[in-house]
Design a protein that fits this description.
The complex is a heterodimer of chains A (114) and B (111).
Chain A lengths: L3 E4 L2 E4 L4 E8 L5 E7 L6 E7 L2 E5 L6 E7 L2 E7 L7 E8 L9 E2 L3 E5 L1
Parallel strand pairs in A: 2-11
Antiparallel strand pairs in A: 1-3, 3-8, 4-5, 4-9, 5-6, 7-8, 9-10, 9-11
Chain B lengths: L3 E4 L2 E5 L4 E7 L6 E7 L6 E7 L4 E4 L2 E6 L4 E6 L8 E7 L7 E2 L3 E6 L1
The chains are: A mainly beta (114), B mainly beta (111).
Chain lengths: 114, 111
Amino acid sequence: ETGVTQTPRHLVMGMTNKKSLKCEQHLGHNAMYWYKQSAKKPLELMFVYNFKEQTENNSVPSRFSPECPNSSHLFLHLHTLQPEDSALYLCASSQDRTGPYEQYFGPGTRLTVT
Amino acid sequence: GENVEQHPSTLSVQEGDSAVIKCTYSDSASNYFPWYKQELGKGPQLIIDIRSNVGEKKDQRIAVTLNKTAKHFSLHITETQPEDSAVYFCAANQAGTALIFGKGTTLSVSS
């Protein structure tokens, strides 16, 4: 266990659905991240939050909407997704963004868009 | 920006052999180089990291070496075991910037 939990672990959704992914870290960290992992591609950083403030948005389509209500919780709200959005979505946390510090990953949510 | 290349993409070894995975990076300002292991159905797990003020770091059967001049770093696993089979990722960054990952190496250890 890395101290980072993600729910749900698996999600199947249609293109017109709205769903949310949840991430929680129990490490006392102040920075949280969303990554997308697709087959045969490097991990793609999507969003970064540092002390609850969004500090990076790597040109992610607006159908992905992050939310960070506090330093321990991170959400990714999904709506009108496309089949190419099917991937493993990973959450990670680190001490903060001033590091570099070790990043700890959750187990991921396997998303399938039908 | 930073770019990280990782080789090989797949590596098959016999149990007990050594395995070496190599990465090169492009940004000379990068000073932090972690290695992650990802098993099936799990997220990446940090197994070892090195910072640019040292050239080598060891932790039991795994070691990482860094050549700042050539801008490459390597993961060495000795006495491989079947449970070492996984996908390994290298990454690089500097303070306040995103971790840039390599594409991964699938290591298979056969007994």
